[in-house]
Design a protein that fits this description.
By secondary structure, this protein is an alpha+beta fold. It is built from nine helices and four strands. It has a four-stranded antiparallel beta sheet with strand order 2-3-1-4, sandwiched between helices. The longest helix is centred in the last third of the chain and has 22 residues, at about 185-205. About 30% of the residues are buried.
Amino acid sequence: MRTPRTELFTKSGKQTVLISNRTHKGMPIFSHEDRAMLRGFIENAARDESFELLAWCYLPTSYRIILRGRLDTPHPIDPNDHSAVQSYPLARFAKKAFVRLGHWRNFRKVESLVWQARFKSTALISNAEQLAGALSVDVHPVLYGLADNAEDYYFCSFHDACAGNKTAQRGIARLVGMPNDEWSEVRASYRRSLQDLHKRVSDLV
């Protein structure tokens, strides 16, 4: 269930949150180069705001990422004060990532609108929710017909993890509840879960 931002922002301690958005009217506006730039902007913004980037997927029409970090501020802020809300870490992250994307698209002289609305945020609290969140990220390119298997899609975390990216491996291992297991075991378990999810979704179509 989507979590209201005011509720997310007022919880103390580190939280895990799924962030997603779609392009305006679902238009496939992100080329391979655009997706590479978007990934870089999001990675840099996450690093700037001390977020761990646990999972990611960038499609021509959307993105889905999972972040972990503090969403609150040291001092209470009125959630109805729009200008004050911009000081929350998640708001700063979004502004840094997507303002940079806007500048990139201006440089490319692309005038179309980018997003259909503000990004959606969902808190992933339980182990089951975190596993479901991870699967919903990495299964996306398969569901959209961009790859036969998630590990074959260049712009998703499972591909990067299978290619040896330690950050992606740690993120997936944490999300599936196997933080201390060998990557080979995590990969086999996660691959089976992705295949099962894809089959269940395909059976419904």
